[in-house]
Amino acid sequence: MKYSGIGGQAVIEGVMMKNQDEYAIAVRKPDHNIEVKKQPCKSLRNKYKAADLPIIRGVISFVESLTMGMSTLNYSASFYEEEEEKMEKSKEQKEKDEKKDNIIMAIVMVFAFLFAIGVFFLVPFFVSEALRKTIPSLQLRGLIEGVIRVFLFVLYVKLISFMEDIKRVFMYHGAEHKCISCIETGHELTLENVRKSSMVHKRCGTSFMLIVMFISILLFMFIVVDNIWLRMVFRILLIPVIAGLSYEFIRFAGKHDNPVINILSKPGLMLQSLTTKEPTDDMIEVAMASVNAVFDWSEFLAHYDEPDEEEKKKEKTEENEDTANTVETEETEQTEETAAAKEETVSEKTPVEEKSETDIEIVSIDDEEDDEILNALDRYFEMPEEKSE
User: Fold this and answer.
1) Which end of the chain is more exposed for a tag (fewer CB within 10 A), N or C?
2) Based on C-alpha coordinates, what's the Rg of the chain?
């Protein structure tokens, strides 16, 4: 599987797909035709370098995804207003309603965020604190708090999956996953290929939420503060950090395929069985229309077997290391050859021609010259004695 960079979201009777700096929403209208809306999207990560730093980019991406998700949901829902209401509305009235919807959407987002914090963070916290006398260990209570949080999240997803409208959204969610899996496994985006593709994906928002739960368990187990209110404040303040860390894991997992990553991603993939359902062919067609609007999958498949940027950098580094090792080996061999040549040259010299490193020539002396020198020395030392006598 090769990373494509596209991501998406299921909406009401449709799918939104995002690729780099643009996104498209494809919706199956009540008349059964597919409406596709394509728009540019600018991220703070592209505008400010600091916004693209690890952890920080995760928080920004999370907030931007929530905002875009609410906007696309609102757009898809607009197709299912009563036809009479649409006909009666004037252009000015539609603009006013759009502004009103934006305000309502902002309020709903705030309340949804507060509700999520209350249910999935504060409720487990207070339940674990109620066990303070029975379980004095902060670490053990932190673990219990995390288990309760995961249980509540899974229960929430399971309950809403019984709603008919949500069930159809989950089917479109499955269509979105199938389209991305089809492309990233190297197959053409056709109805037949998408049908056979997987409904689970490592970069899914469901996996992201579960990773948030697990990371919160690890962090909150080791926040040792005696004051109960201070511990609660820390839990709220650390939410952006947890979101940032979770984003980094999901991002890394989406680009790598190895046994460790696959094992760590398994719980999230298992939970996706609740949030993705097998789509119908007409739902797959909607998802395909959204992909085609923002992503040139034929160009992607044409270079599918080529390594991506990270693999190219890794290969280049390995090539540089191999080149450096080769050069070092060659230099060592040349040095050894030179030393051996010098040794051979020295060994071939005669005793008369040999010189020391200070260029002192060693000359052989015969026996007759040796006797003359000794006699001269004897005469020299005997002369003073004769004078003294």
Assistant:
1) C
2) 39
For residue 7, what are the β-bridge partners? 18
Once rounded to an integer, what is the mean pLDDT over residues 359-364?
44
Residue 182 has pLDDT above 90, yes or no: yes
φ, ψ (nearest 5 deg) of residue 243: -60, -40
User: Which residues sit opposite 27 in a β-bridge?
Assistant: 14, 35
**What pTM was estimated for this model as a whole?**
0.72
pLDDT digits (tens, 9 = 90+) for 261-319: 889 889 888 989 899 999 999 999 999 999 999 999 999 998 888 776 555 555 555 55
| Angle (nearest 5°) at CA 181 between 178 and 185 | 140
The upper half-sphere exposure of residue 370, i.e. CA atoms within 13 Å in the direction of its Cβ, equals 5
Question: Phi/psi at 17 (nearest 5 deg)?
Answer: -120, 135
pLDDT tens for 189-209 read: 999 999 999 998 888 888 998
Q: Give 23's contacts (C-beta < 8 A, 6+ positions apart).
A: 16, 17, 38, 39, 41, 68, 72, 294
